[in-house]
Amino acid sequence: MAEWLYEAGIGEARAALVADGAIVEARIERDGEGPRVGAVVSARLVEAGRRALVALDLPGAPVATLASAPSGVSTGAKLTVEITRMALRERGRDKPPRARLSDLAIGDGPDLRARIAATGLPVVEPAAIGPDRLEEVGWSELIEQVRAGHWPFAGGALWIDTTPAMTLIDIDGDGHGLALARAGGEAAVHAIRCCDIGGSIGIDFPTLAGRAERQEIDALIDEHLPQPFERTAINGFGLMQIIRRRERPSLVEQLRFDPVATDAALLLRQAERARGVGALHLTARPAVADHIAARAGWIAELSKRTGRPVEILRDAHLKGVGHAQ
Question: Where does a domain end: 213, 229, 251?
Answer without folding.
Answer: 251
